Amino acid sequence: MKKVYIETYGCQMNEYDTEIVKTILAGHQFGFTEVPEEAEVIFLNTCSVRENAHQKVQNRIANLKHLKRRNKKLIMGVLGCMAQNLRDELLGDNVGVDIIAGPDSYKKLPELIRHVEDSGEKDFALTLSEFETYSDVFPRAEAGINAWVAVMRGCDNFCTFCVVPYTRGRERSRDPFNVQDEVRQLAGQGFKQVTLLGQNVNSYRSGEYDFGRLMKLVSEVDGIERIRFTSPHPKDFPENLLQEMAGNPKICKHIHLPLQAGNDRVLQVMNRTYTRREFENLAAHIRQLIPGVVLTTDIIVGFPGETDAEFEETLQVIRELQFDSAFMFKYSERKQTIASRKYPDDVPEQVKSERLDRLIELQRLISLLKNEAHIGQKFKVLVEGPGRKTGQVIGRTDGNKAVAFFSDKLLPGDFAEVAIQAASANTLMGELL
Ligand code: SAH
Ligand code: SF4
Ligand code: F3S
Fold first, then answer.
1. 326-380 pLDDT, tens per residue?
2. What is the atom index within ligand 1 of the atom nearest the CA of 333?
3. pTM above the 0.90 mark?
4. Distance between CA atoms of 257 and 272, rounded to whole angstroms?
5. Distance, CA of 355 to CA of 268 (rounded, Å)
6. Ligand positioned closest to the Cα atom of 201
7. Four-residue CA torsion sign, 52, 54, 58, 63
8. What is the model's pLDDT at position 298?
9. Virtual CA dihedral for 220, 253, 383, 183, nearest 10 degrees?
10. Hey, which CATH number is domain 146-372, 1.10.155.10, 3.40.50.2000, 3.80.30.20, 3.40.50.300?
């Protein structure tokens, strides 16, 4: 049995895809190892979304290349979004990479490995598919509390900064009953929570089933107690989806609602398809329909042409909307994107850094205040594992906030009632009731 070692970078979809890759390879008599030194095949499942994600993988490839000196037969492969995006660079002479396979080509991996072994040549598979959903591969989920389930793949939005439509291809959705079967199997394995995944998850559509109806179908599976989803786009929150979220106790009351920027001109050149006012109205509507909902967001600072005044508007919206937390990034120009072709990356690095620092500081304060407002409240917490201090466990609220508390009995997968006693910007501290 050949041993394969896989490292995963990037988003949850890549985590899930790594499980798919393992399932496919296991079906062809491959085994797995957690140690690169023991492996005969090394795969890096990569991300292209920002330059630093890139850089990390490039360094890692250079680093792992040394192992080839000890084991001349070692095969190294790059999977995922970078493979799709950087084919020529990666297959260069001294890079050390033998195989590259894009996100829709994982069923070809056994064949690619065999070909490289037999011929000693490099090989690649990068065709993006309009159909591939891996519906027929139910991956072996890593043991734990949460299991990922990709329900749709690809993105047709073409936000001008984003490489994902090029690396993941067009949108396609799985059959809802096939998704339900996979969730049923996961429940049978003891998973209590599933997170439905898609690059644009709430634009899911299969026949009569939109995302709201899909979530209802998934919630009918016995044993699954919590359903999460990521990442949605603000343009796809029809009333029936919000009503389903509000009324269905299994659907977690947390929405990640990526804003990206607060100024209308910037939003327009980003091709986000909403204005500041429309986004604010949506957030207000969600909060009215789903009391206590946790809202989180993504922000990009320093998009081409962003002025100081336009950035100030992002700060204003952040102050006004009071997200529970946010992922915040400096604009990073990506090859192939519309922005890289049309809008020069003209905000100086130092200005980007200053804007990011100010934004992070502001959001940190808001997150702290939001968390402090939970002191004295009670939450149902799903235990995930041990906490930092001995005797402590960490779990999550329905709104996805981490809670640390002391307990010597509770195990991962147990539910507990916890009263919040203290808070930081990232964590709640509580007492078991
Ligand atoms: N499908 C997801 C996006 C995945 S990328 C969605 O639409 O929410 C996650 C986040 O990375 C995006 O929301 C955006 O804030 C950020 N991002 C994407 N491309 C970027 C780029 N070129 N530079 C900086 N941040 C970027
Ligand atoms: Fe990228 Fe926009 Fe698609 Fe999200 S919605 S993956 S940011 S193009
Ligand atoms: Fe990265 Fe591709 Fe996911 S670019 S964020 S791994 S979709």
1. 999 999 999 999 999 999 999 999 999 999 999 999 999 999 999 999 999 999 9
2. 22
3. yes
4. 12
5. 20
6. 1
7. positive
8. 98
9. 30
10. 3.80.30.20
Enumerate the β-bridge partners of residue 36.
Answer: none
pLDDT exceeds cutoff 90 at 88: no
Average pLDDT, the chain: 95
Q: What is the mean pLDDT of residues 405-411?
A: 93
Residue ranges covered by each domain of the chain = 3-125, 146-372, 378-432
Nearest CA, atom 1, ligand 2: 162
CA 72 to chain centre: 35
Convert the pLDDT of each residue in 309-318 to its tens digit: 999 999 999 9
Residue type, 290: I
Residue whose C-alpha is closest to residue 237's, from 202, 261, 210: 202
In terms of DSSP H, where are the helices of 45-203? 51-64, 67-70, 81-85, 87-90, 109-119, 164-168, 176-188
Residue of 51, 158, 257, 329 to mutate, ligand 1, most atoms within 8 A of C-beta: 329
Please report which confidence band the pLDDT of residue 223 belongs to, taking 50, 70 and 90 as the band edges. Answer: very high
Amino acid of residue 11: C
Instruction: Please report, for residues 6, 144, 294, 431, the alpha-carbon distance to residue 291 in angstroms, rounded to integers and kept in the order given.
Output: 42, 29, 9, 24
d(CA 291, CA 284): 10
Any idea which ligand is nearest the CA of 47?
3
Long-range contacts from 342-346, C-beta under 8 angstroms, 24+ separation: 342/160, 343/160, 343/269, 343/303, 343/304, 343/305, 344/304, 345/304, 346/304, 346/305
CA 268 from centroid of its chain's CA atoms: 24
User: Which numeric CATH code is attached to 3-125?
Assistant: 3.40.50.12160
User: Using CA atoms in the order 411, 417, 420, 426, what is the torsion angle rounded to 10 degrees?
Assistant: 50
Q: Which two tokens stand for residue 29?
A: 């008599």
pLDDT of residue 87: 83
